[in-house]
Amino acid sequence: MTSVRTTRFPGEVAAPGKGGVGESPLRPDGTLKVKGEFAYSSDLWIDGMLWGATLRSPHPRARILRLDIGPALKLPGVHAVLTHEDVPGRKMYGLDHTWDQPVLAIGEVRHHGEPIALVAADHPEIARRAMEAIVIEWEVLEPITDPLAVVADPERHKVQERGGITRYQPVRVGDMEVGRALADVVIAEDYEVGIQDQAFLGPESGLVVPAEDGGLDFYVATQWMHWDLTQIGPCLDLPEDKMRMTLAGVGGAFGGREDLSMQIHAGMLALYTGKPVKMMYNREESFFGHVHRHPAQMRYEYGVTRAGKIVFAKVRIVLDGGAYTSATLNVTGNAASLAVGPYEIPNLEIDAYGVYTNNPPCGAMRGFGAVQACFAHESMMDKIAEAVGLDPVHVRQINAVSQGSKIATGQVVHAPMPMAEMLGQARDMPLPAPLDVADIRNLPGGASQTTHGEGVVRGIGYGVGIKNICFSEGFDDYSTARVRLEVIGGEPVALVHTAAAEVGQGLVTVEAQIARTELGVERVTIHPADNQVGSSGSSSASRQTYMTGGAVKAACEAVRMRVLALAQGRFGAARGLRLVGGKVVSHTGEVYGALVDLLGDEIIEETREFHHKPTTGMDPVTGQGDSHTQLALCVHRAVVDVDTELGLVKVVALDAVQDVGKIMNRLSLEGQIHGGSAQGLGLAVMEEIQVRDGKVLNPSFTDYLIPTILDMPPQRLEILENADPHAPYGLRGAGEPPTLSSTPAVVAAIRDACRSAGGTVHINRVPVRPEDIIRSS
Length: 777
Prior knowledge:
The chain has 777 residues and is α+β, with helices and mostly antiparallel strands.
């Protein structure tokens, strides 16, 4: 199979095109964000507004014996102090129809930072003092923090009344006894992934304004407005037609805004006081105000032949979901279905568990269950290579899936998937120049002068990630778009209206590109995202270009059909007409007339829904089913320099090969690959929420470290375009796959360096700590 390949090297800049699909028009919000002029949700302001604040639990597990809000109410400038008794409607909400999370604590708290009471005041400092004045008497209880103990005895370790286990999903394929009989070598290892935070820079914030009809107008940063309102309405006892939501400026999301944060709380305060209420978390509160990536404890056992062929895999994955369900049901399903990655293994026994604990709540984060599994299955591929004496790239190639293969759930890979070729391309990329120890900035530790090259060893490692795109397991994952074409100021103008959240991924740019391509007009306006049009689903699962892009394309096609029908009647033209550059032309290029003259004062508007091909749930016993819409691959090769005496790491290169089906916008695409790789690098060597006995110890960007520009190396990117026949334009979602493969590639390179230094390598946990490297060297 021949792949279309486009290669970019560090330092190259793509020239902006005219603005259609495949070109790279600049983002309309890009310059504003760079200059600090973009209006984020935290910048919202309205005259007469109050400031809302949330009192949170200092304990991971405790009963509330007494709650006295009287002292807070006596403070001048305080307009309201609310508890769970003041919730107007249903007191519980939750993602995925679980409804297990209290709006405000009811008699007990189940995690550190759980909301207990709300305050509305004239000034944020008054609100803070009012929270401190609230009196609470506690009965502190022993928290349940060990997810393995929950799996072993879920009834004894119950955080929720429904039990200790959120979801158990097995996968069974083939015959394990047959597999064991075929194995020449059996390898078993335990792996662990720590808690990673989405670490978006814009904290949770928003403004809620009471309306004359008794309803509320919400201006919030979120990922899925319609599902927010589905949860908010019953809690505030408001019907759908009394709630209007407009997307405010979003400062990053990565899954952390799928769950509600301040929406219901600000709505309660606005209804109670009759005044606009603004809520804005500080950085510490933000760590408690959103879910994180599930930490995982995993056991992998593989049987292989001496030729490196995997004949069986036995896997156990335990995901700690924290106190409430959030997205744990689906994260567990994802982890189970992708537990052994993009490899053909005939005999499988996989058990994936999502459990409740009193640790921080966990839910959606970029990679969604596949990140944890990818670290383990890629580490196992390296162990296989070492055990049978083969090259780690070759071991991956001989076990790789391709078009027509089945993944663990029995789902057939229906689109081109040239994984073996991609691995070869990653291996053959030029390597960075040898380490120059004369410049200390090149060394691990940099200008801190912790080393001058003593004990520094270079290592190379690979990682492959396979990620599902769009929602899975039978979810009707549709999106809606409304497109309007009219003449304004003597020019044809298209207006695109969706409820899709622009969270920094560049969706508004792609929407405009699609409209330009389909309607042949240059001027395209993107209507602010709100709930006055049908749902566009969540800005997650790398789905918006696929789903909302598909909806915009369908609505544009409907508009174009009406325009061309109008042209046939007006100009007496034959079939085969097109819209090009604001003109109606024939297939031979003959111009029939200008679109401006054709439309006149007429407005053509169409609304369409786009649905992907149906998926099914996973069988509860065998795990089999066509559970995923689309699968996407990314391959990383990492090059690292490691000071094996001090445990310091410098990532020198993190090159990637990714198949995206169709390049919609090169600049945005490269940004997605760079960003995903950065988050994977962070998980590999620095990012972890530290939790002890259920308490978060480092809720700040001083102590929770994320990669900066000094930590990110140059990246060579090779981007393939093997079209998916089921997707609009043949595209594949691109935002998540690089997050998977970058982490194991970096860790594999660290292991390789330690091995080169003569160490006995045992690095099975991320993020890798300095003591892990020293112990392995």
